[in-house]
C-alpha cells in the first residue's frame, strides 16, 4: 500500500510513519530528513537547500524531486510519504511516478502545533526524538540511548515555525483538496495519545 501522511508541523507525521513502517514494512520516505542528511553530509544539494530550510521556506522543487526520485526507486513493498508533496507541482511529479492509495490528514490546531514544535529536540548523534513536554531525556540535554548531545533543529524557532504553518495553508491545502475530491482523504484527530492515533489510523485504513 502507498500512503501519504499530511498535516501541519508537529502533528506527529514522522512518529506515526515510523510506527507504520515497523508494523507493515512499508518504506518511510521523509523529504525533511533526506534534506537534513544532505546538509550533514555537506552535499551540493544540501548546501543549496540549507538557507531555505533555516528560514522555514520550501526548498525549490528541482532539488526535492532529485531526492524523492532516488527514494522512490528503492521502494518496492509500499511507501509512507511524509512531507511530500507540499504543493501542486510536487503532486503532479508524484502522480507521474507513483499511485497513492490513501491520504491521512493528521488534524491539529496551530496553537498546539507551535507548542509541540518549539519543545521538540533530538540527539545529535543517534537522532532519537525527544519532546520537552512529554518525552524528556532522563538527564538534561543528554541522550538516554547513546549519551549524545540533545539539540534543537535550526528551523524549530518560532519565526520559522510560523512561516512553515503559513506555507502549509498557502500551498498544501490545495493538495488536500485534490485528494479529498478524489475520495482518498482520511481525517484523524492528532491531538490524542500516540498509540490512540495509531489505532485510529489502522482502523480507518481497514488494515
Ligand atoms: P520537515 O522536516 O517536514 O518539517 O521539513 C523541514 C524543511 O525541509 C521544510 O521547512 C522545507 O524547507 C524543507 N522541505 C521538506 N520537505 C519539502 C518539500 N516537499 N518541498 C520543499 N521543501 C521541503
What sort of overall outline do the alpha carbons produce when their principal axes are compared? globular
Count of the domains: 1
Structural class designation? alpha/beta
Number of helices: 8
Return residue spans where pLDDT drops below 50 for at least 5 consecutive residues. Answer: none
- Outline the biggest β-sheet: 5 strands, parallel
- Fourth-tier CATH superfamily name: P-loop containing nucleotide triphosphate hydrolases
CATH topology value: Rossmann fold
Walk me through the structure.
This protein has one domain (about 1-110, about 160-200): 3-Layer(aba) Sandwich (Rossmann fold). It has eight helices and eight strands. The strands form two sheets. Strands 2-3-1-4-8 form a five-stranded parallel beta sheet, sandwiched between helices. Strand 5 and strand 6 form a beta hairpin. Helix 4 (about 60-75) runs parallel beside helix 5 (about 90-95) and helix 6 (about 110-120) crosses helix 7. The longest helix has 24 residues, at about 160-180. It has helices at about 15-25, 30-40, 45-55, 60-75, 90-95, 110-120, 160-180, 195-205; strands at about 1-5, 25-30, 80, 100-105, 120-125, 130, 150, 185-190. The mean pLDDT is about 95. It is of the alpha/beta class and about 210 residues long. About 50% of the residues lie in helices and about 15% in strands. The structure holds adenosine monophosphate. Adenosine monophosphate binds next to helix 2 and helix 3.
Amino acid at each position: 500500500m502507498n500512503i501519504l501522511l499530511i498535516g501541519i508541523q508537529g502533528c506527529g507525521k514522522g512518529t506515526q510513519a515510523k510506527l507504520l513502517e515497523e508494523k507493515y514494512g512499508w518504506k518511510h520516505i521523509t523529504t525533511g530528513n533526506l534534506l537534513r542528511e544532505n546538509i550533514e553530509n555537506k552535499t551540493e544539494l544540501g548546501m543549496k537547500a540549507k538557507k531555505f530550510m533555516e528560514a522555514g521556506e520550501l526548498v525549490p522543487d528541482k532539488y526535492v524531486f532529485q531526492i524523492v526520485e532516488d527514494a522512490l526507486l528503492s521502494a518496492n513493498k509500499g511507501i509512507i510519504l511524509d512531507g511530500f508533496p507540499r504543493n501542486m507541482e510536487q503532486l503532479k511529479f508524484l502522480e507521474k511516478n507513483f499511485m497513492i492509495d490513501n491520504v491521512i490528514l493528521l488534524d491539529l490546531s496551530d496553537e498546539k502545533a507551535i507548542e509541540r514544535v518549539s519543545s521538540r529536540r533530538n540527539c545529535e548523534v543517534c537522532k532519537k526524538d525527544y519532546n520537552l513536554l512529554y518525552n524528556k531525556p532522563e538527564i538534561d540535554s543528554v541522550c538516554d540511548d547513546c549519551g549524545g548531545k540533545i539539540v534543537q533543529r535550526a528551523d524549530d524557532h518560532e519565526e520559522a515555525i510560523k512561516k512553515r504553518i503559513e506555507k502549509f495553508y498557502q500551498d498544501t491545502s490545495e493538495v488536500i483538496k485534490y485528494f479529498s475530491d478524489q475520495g482518498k482523504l482520511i481525517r484523524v484527530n492528532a491531538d490524542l495519545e500516540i498509540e490512540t492515533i495509531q489505532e485510529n489510523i489502522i482502523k480507518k485504513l481497514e488494515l
